[in-house]
Automatic annotation (TrEMBL):
<dbReference type="InterPro" id="IPR000477">
    <property type="entry name" value="RT_dom"/>
</dbReference>
<dbReference type="InterPro" id="IPR043502">
    <property type="entry name" value="DNA/RNA_pol_sf"/>
</dbReference>
<dbReference type="InterPro" id="IPR051083">
    <property type="entry name" value="GrpII_Intron_Splice-Mob/Def"/>
</dbReference>
<protein>
    <recommendedName>
        <fullName>Reverse transcriptase domain-containing protein</fullName>
    </recommendedName>
</protein>
<dbReference type="Pfam" id="PF00078">
    <property type="entry name" value="RVT_1"/>
</dbReference>
<feature type="domain" description="Reverse transcriptase">
    <location>
        <begin position="1"/>
        <end position="338"/>
    </location>
</feature>
Length: 477
């Protein structure tokens, strides 16, 4: 398939609707503008001349759960401009086609799970757990690549990209070179800094036009970073496809190593797992295999697999054990927990849902009671009876209701849909995800050798949220 045909095919398959909404230097694109840009980008010379705007970068707090909140981790978010993001998406569509062809030609269709159409973490987890449960006993190696996206080497990425596109390592054509350079050598501005410069009365962008943006840069009101030198940003439409492309040689060699022991190797982004039947390898051989993977990642990819964090597990007699010991444990893989006998979601999924839901139930109960008190004219009396530990929150809720003339609990419908669902709502509540996971893991039920309690456990969490809401309403009467 030549380049023009590949682009025309990408135009047919690209999703015009699925866009993130965020403020940037440019304005969001409507469908007419998107189509016009795609027609323009059929000419590779125009893509080669495309000028890139800085990304916008900021951090969000990620709470890590383990029975309680353990710590808060900062996650870096890097957003391309709307036009740049659309160009990345267009070229990602083309790369995905070539990448799937490459996997087929090299018999690797089953190996990478992430960032591929018609693949999901749930399907990937089921395949691995089914393979484990079908063995009398087996070894499991589970690990990840440290700071994966941040450490991808640019020259190696370009070499691997040319292999996927053209079957050999060669200089990239000017359009692909500009696209990959726009991602690798990206510059960014701070969202905190650019937010302070937002033009009043302008919607959809931080600036009225590019002249205002250029003026802010020239007068040093807005600092643009130096070009990036290592790694790529994680959140663009093409980042996942490029990360998979970077791994093609490693995936092939790791898959061949696993196959030599009649086992399997699978990778989801920076997480990998190897399963080897116990009759094909003893513990020393499996540890040697693990060291081979660590060395291969270092020499071939310039990436680190931390030996201390790479686990060796054993499946035997329908139980998961730590290494060669008799200490029982769980296999946690792609959000699924497998004990050897039972499949459910990993603990932190339930804890995350529990703590988020608990906060929302408190809010819902507090505002429901405050609203009733305000509407029936006994707000001050209600506030005086609220327990002291809730007094400040109750006072703020009552003030908000009275000041803004609120007649309904804000966001009540979205909260109940999310945390107190009667029925699943596609991609909008925990129940939907749990039912989907339950359905996937109980498919071909006659052939599986484990119990699936995902839906049962999820409903317990939802029931707990309902009880907590009742408790808050009774406490804050």
């Amino acid at each position: 398939m030549n380049e023009l045909n590949l682009k025309q095919q990408a135009i047919k398959t690209i999703d015009f609707q699925k866009d993130k909404r965020y403020l940037h230097i440019d304005y969001p694109l409507n469908e007419t503008v998107k189509k016009a840009l795609l027609m323009r980008w059929l000419d590779p010379k125009l893509v080669a001349k495309h000028r890139w705007l800085p990304f916008i970068q900021y951090n969000i707090k990620m709470q890590k759960y383990d029975g309680h909140i353990v710590h808060v981790k900062l996650r870096k978010i890097t957003l391309p401009s709307h036009t740049d993001g659309w160009l990345f998406k267009f070229y990602a569509e083309m790369l995905n086609v070539k990448y799937e062809d490459y996997l087929t030609d090299h018999h690797l269709q089953s190996v990478p799970i992430g960032y591929r159409k018609h693949h999901s973490s749930l399907l990937g987890a089921k395949e691995v757990i089914d393979f484990i449960s079908q063995q009398p006993s087996c070894w499991i190696i589970k690990g990840d690549f440290k700071n994966f996206f941040d450490n991808l080497r640019h020259q190696l990425l370009r070499d691997q990209l040319s292999k996927v596109l053209y079957g050999q390592s060669q200089p990239l054509p000017a359009d692909w070179y500009n696209v990959i350079t726009g991602l690798e050598r990206y510059r960014f501005v701070s969202r905190h800094k650019i937010s302070a410069l937002k033009t009043d009365g302008v919607h959809g962008s931080y600036f009225k036009n590019f002249h205002e943006y250029n003026q802010a840069v020239r007068t040093k009101q807005l600092h643009v970073s130096h070009p990036n030198r290592l790694g790529i940003p994680q959140g663009t439409a093409i980042s996942g496809a490029l990360a998979n492309t970077y791994m093609i040689d490693f995936d092939e060699q790791a898959d061949q190593l696993a196959a030599s022991y009649k086992g399997i190797y699978r990778r989801y982004s920076d997480d990998f797992i190897v399963v080897v039947p116990k009759q094909k390898a003893d513990f020393k051989q499996v540890e040697r295999f693990k060291q081979q993977l660590i060395a291969l990642a270092q020499t071939q990819l310039h990436l680190e697999i931390e030996a201390a964090k790479t686990k060796t597990l054993r499946y035997e007699n329908q139980q998961i054990y730590q290494g060669n010991s008799q200490r029982p444990t769980q296999l946690n893989y792609l959000g699924i927990s497998f004990s050897g006998k039972k499949v459910t979601l990993i603990d932190k999924s339930f804890y995350r849902e529990y703590y988020r839901g608990k906060r929302q139930m408190f809010y819902l109960g507090l505002y429901s009671n405050a609203l009733r008190a305000a509407q029936q004219g006994y707000g001050p009396q209600w506030l005086a009876q609220v327990p002291s530990k809730y007094h400040q929150a109750a006072a703020m809720a009552l003030q908000h209701i009275e000041r803004d003339g609120i007649n309904n609990v804000p966001h009540r419908r979205s909260i109940t849909t999310r945390y107190l669902p009667i029925r699943p709502v596609h991609r909008k509540n925990f129940l939907d995800y749990a039912m989907k996971a339950q359905r996937i893991f109980t498919a071909n039920q006659n052939s599986i050798a484990y119990q699936v309690t995902i839906l049962h456990d999820a409903r317990r969490i939802i029931a707990h949220e309902g009880r907590y809401l009742h408790y808050i309403k009774e406490t804050l009467k």
